[in-house]
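Throughout this chapter, every protein is written as a compact record of paired, labelled lines. The reader may check this reading against the record printed directly beneath this paragraph:
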Amino acid sequence: GRICAEAMPATLDGLLRELAARHGDRVAVAGSGSRLSFAQLDAAAEAWARRLAPLEAAHVGLLAANGPEWLAAAFGVWRSGATLVPLSTFATPRELGEILAHADVEVLLAQRRMRSHDFEAALAAMPAPPRLRRTIFLDQASEAGGDVDAGSRAEGAPRAVPRPESIACILYTSGTTGTPKGVMLSHRAILATVLPTASLTGLCESDLLLSTLPLFWVAG
């Protein structure tokens, strides 16, 4: 049942669709007190894509802790045809403002709090990014309406279809010795690591993988 190299989908959204079709009832991700099967992750991604498509944002930021909600939002961004800009949960308000401005982020998906981190306050304190026109908090995901610009396309309108060479992510370095740098990764580049990683580490379908690395960095 493992997806072989010849059948590897060309995009991250294609990969989720394939896994949902093959293993819909199996748990895809667990954490933060919740879990999602592959079918549920696919449905959650579809819900996010429907919310994002009318906003017509090319770059969507994501500021949140590791967990099912992060993955659902991320796959929703990819399904909507946009590029994901994951943000470090360690970033200061100044760094958040600089990264959002540099990446031309138009819509931001954010968690309000993570333990002692108050992201809502940090976003209010950061310099206003020139292209940012909408912030949606993850706990608003089930709310209807209220975040679609007037005159934008109706829900369910045609979406941009990601291609293998489309930029899936813009990941920012930590900026340890300078300002953070944005690294552009295509769908093809990210997917090229999947099978070699599974093979080199001996992963199989019955394994559970504990991920302790931040999802906003390439190793995660």
Summary: DSSP finds seven helices and ten strands in the chain. The radius of gyration is 17 Å. The beta strands are 27-31, 34-37, 59-63, 83-86, 107-110, 113-114, 117-118, 134-137, 167-172, 182-186. The longest strand covers residues 167-172.
